[in-house]
Amino acid sequence: MWQQLTMELFWRIAHDLEHALEGLTVEEVHHQPGPASNSIAWLAWHLTRSHDRNISELAGHEQLWITGGWYALFKRSPDPTDTGFGHSAAEAAAFRAPDSHLLLDYHRAVVERIRQYILEGLSEGDLDREVYSPTLQNRATVRRRLAGIISEGFQHVGQAAYGRGLLAGQRGLGR
Fold first, then answer.
1. How far apart are the C-alpha atoms of 71 and 158, rounded to whole Å?
2. N or C end of the chain: which has fewer CB within 10 A?
3. Taking all residues of the chain, what is their mean pLDDT, rounded to a whole number?
């Protein structure tokens, strides 16, 4: 029961991300509302990289970013720590994705990994297991990590949707 609820939250993030990216051009997904603001593309990529890194750490797998060759499709390094965490405003502004379809394809692949982990491999007893994050350099329970991943996911997809709304106001995009 709790597994299904948890997955519903991840599926909601994915659904909302699809709506935030739907129909946007490459220029629009890379638009920055202000000089130090993140683009929709960067937010979608960072959200997905964070999900990939966190779930891969929890499940004890190498990230899809590397094993699936996503880094090459995004023309980036296979560095597993390249998630956007700690990016400066200039680094975030320099980020480029080929298009919104690739962002969504990567996100769908990560959500499938999340589904496999939560519905096929995670027991209620696992929720209290402590895990170490080499990226964040901290220990937390699986429960706490999942809550953080979901919270961050909703925050970033909300930011992307807000960015889309700003575009609509500037360019007359309808929904």
1. 25
2. N
3. 94
